[in-house]
């Protein structure tokens, strides 16, 4: 922005210098007035046009690099001011304007190179992140297919042996051994039919993710309740759904596992459709310890991926012109998400 201000200063001084103004105070007044008018008109336009891209780039630039750029800007500004000796009471000559603009152009190009490099890094990071999530989604679907195949195999085995079991039960009933028949049926229902997880969501991607994490939650004795209403044909990219649901549930499991009290570990996830909005709410128990840095919330000092995960969720929600909010008490963590799919 300081480069833009210098350019405006040079241009306004040059324009005023074209007119025969002998009074230095009048020259200074008109030059300042013209410069202020141009800045008031142009700076908001530039800010609105480039602010999102600029903020996006800053997410992937370290504080050290930002400090170096800031120091570089100050040094260049001091050098430019001392070298050319600008005087508001004295018109700037045309060759001074040309040299100054050339100097500013060189500086601008150097900044452009920095931000092009940062943009390239940004794209590479996003690509790596998408590939990572695609791999994770494929792995989840593989797990779901394995569960499905196991269910099919058990079904055929069950169908093959069904006739023999029915004959055995019929024989017991015919001989009036009702208690034995009841015990046999009870034992049969527990051993022959494998335990399956019912469909949790009509959307295959979300269903696969939830089934995967439910098994992980069971291993940690976490009560996992779901009430999901997400249609298969919803106008939200499957990869985006995977990132949103996967990150939130994974973070919830991690938070539950850090609790000291092993009795009340739980995760509740609900979703519903209202108009063209997908509303998701996730509640989970946690130990009440929250770390907040640069507007990124984490429930663990060790796991940096926790905060990164929620940051990526927020980014995807913004992509769908949605709403992302985090609330917490001393014992419960809540994530509220609204995504527009119109």
UniProtKB/TrEMBL annotation:
InterPro entries per record: HATPase_C_sf, NatK-like_C
Leader peptide range in chain numbering: none
CDD domains according to UniProt: HATPase_AgrC-ComD-like
Keywords: Coiled coil, Membrane, Transmembrane, Transmembrane helix
Pfam families: HATPase_c_5
GO MF terms, alphabetically ordered: identical protein binding
Stretches of the chain forming a coiled coil according to its record: 124-151
Membrane-spanning residues: 27-48, 69-86, 98-121
Keyword Transmembrane: yes
Membrane among keywords: yes
Residue ranges annotated for the Sensor histidine kinase NatK-like C-terminal domain, each copy included: 237-339
Name by which UniProt lists this protein: Sensor histidine kinase NatK-like C-terminal domain-containing protein
